[in-house]
Design a protein that fits this description.
Protein name: Iron-regulated membrane protein
Structural class: alpha+beta
Pfam families: PepSY_TM (PF03929)
Keywords: Membrane, Transmembrane, Transmembrane helix
Oligomer: single chain
Strand content: 5-15%
Mean pLDDT: 88
Low-confidence stretches: 230-242, 245-250
Helix content: 40-55%
Organism: Brachybacterium sacelli
Largest sheet: 4 strands, antiparallel
Strand order of the largest sheet: 1-2-3-4
Length: about 450
Amino acid sequence: MGPFLLVVALSGALYALSTPVERMIYSDELTAPISGEALPLADQVSAATDYVGQEETLVAVRPAPEPGETTRVMYSGTDLGESETRAIFVDPATAEVRGDLTTYGTSGALPVRTWIDQLHRGLHLGDFGRNYSEFAASWMAVVALAGIGLWVARAVTSRSRREALLPRRDVSTRRGTLSWHASGGIVLALGMLFLSATGITWSQHAGTHVTDLRAALGWTTPAVTTQLGEETAVPDEHAGHAGHGGGESGHPSAEPGTADPAMFDHALEMGQAENIDSTNVEILPPTSEDTAWVVQEIQRSYPTMVDSVAIDMGDMEIVDRVDFEDFGLMAKLARWGVDIHMGTMFGLVNQIAVALVALAIAAMVVLGYRMWWQRRPTRGGTARVGKPPARGALQAAPWWGIGLVALVALAIGLFLPMVGFGLIGFLVVDLMVQARRTDRSPH
């Protein structure tokens, strides 16, 4: 599993730093000269629609959050991939079109960050490639917990606490490498478990189990209902995952012509009068005649602001609202966990911290391989591979110990399928190696 962990850690570090890089690369599209008061959204949307053509389907508008930034007017298209939209960047003061780019997910990732994101979660191999990141995320937790157990056992038998906590200066020997790997690993263990848990939530297989578990325990994330006439909110299971591993874009597909540009200003005003306080806002037009407009906050940085409101623009009435402060504790933790994982919660500080943790995990993998290489037999003048652990440890355990290990492995394998498949693969290879050795042994 080492290569999988190495790739996911290095690509994760790259993704963590992709947001500031994105702002530099696409500064022309993301920023505009401060030249006066912002025009009504109707004028900005009309300018974007004139640019793309009346036949394009308008699916969302993100007003400029601050002076000097641009408004995003977003359209769907048959030539776009899953969770992608075509974003037209408009100068809010002049309605000048400053850019035309494909964006991805609710995070609004632009092409460079999207490319890095797809590399991190699937190696650009589609759904099949996502198995690699799920394998790495699932096994990262197992490795971290096993490492904690080994460190505790070493700390108990160590002559001093200093030896267990602080690395040796000498890294040329296996003992020195082990010291660095152990002391660094115990510091990183919490970060590894966090990244593993949050990464698993949007994985293909285990993510479904997490969603089912949250639903069974009542930990779902609420979302406004857009069906006119309905009074209760419905859960949105993928609200926290779109844009980084989730399959939902968060944008409805409205029919052409249903989104009147003049209505965006009215929808925003009504939302601001109700519960929309952030300047980072997205306005979604209705998907059909019997669905409502939605105005939702998209501020994932601290303090989190993701309130939303559904509006019947025909009667000019609020039909539903959801406030983040009313989320359950687990729904809030899920929201915060995903945002910290993606580096959006605390901005650049968060991004640098995640990148450093990811690079440190990669270093732990390299140190692990270094220990393996330093353990190789060197007698006879040949540099063979590292010596494997002694066989038969499980067979020597009592029957109840073997049964307990089997039950735990089965439970984990069912909830985390990639751990289960990995265990089966390791077992098959181990049995094949044993059979080959038995055939070669003298009778």
